[in-house]
Amino acid sequence: MESLHFVDACTSEHFFAMSRIHALGWRTTYQDAVPAAYMAQEITDDRWVPSFRDNYESGRCHGLLLYNGNTPVVCCNYGPARAEDGAYSGWGEIISFYAHPAEKGKGYGGLLMEEALRRLRTSGFSRCYVLVLRENENARRFYSAHGFAWDGTQVEIPFPPDTVCIDLRYAREL
Description:
By secondary structure, the chain is an alpha+beta fold. It is built from five helices and seven strands. Strands 1-2-3-4-5-7-6 form a seven-stranded mixed beta sheet, sandwiched between helices. It starts with a strand and ends with a strand. The relative contact order is 0.16. The model has no long low-confidence stretch (mean pLDDT 95).
């Protein structure tokens, strides 16, 4: 029997679990989009631990995991929009969202997304967005299924030495 429960990321163990899920997600999802040398050098299991800890300590954004028993299966970060141009001032953002590759297709992502959206609403946001790699068709379908739609904007993400990926902004009302 599944024992699903949400956990607010607040310990080193949580930050590492989130970082590892992010790294696994990058390795399986972006292998054809992001340069291999960048992936090999930068995408380590503990890569995001310092930023998750800093976000927690500063209150900048919130980490949230869904566990099945003692196993973290999906995680996200959410909080105020980070868009620098002011066009999305007052919006919420799903900053990152990754499922452990072995746990995809089990409905866990949908549960976590609905909880993150509920928390954004409770925090007073009436709209939110998520950035998604243009080539990531599975994620685009997932976000669409949860009420997001491309708003026509995009963000260029440069990767050394000469690759530029495009993130599409998917938005929705809360």
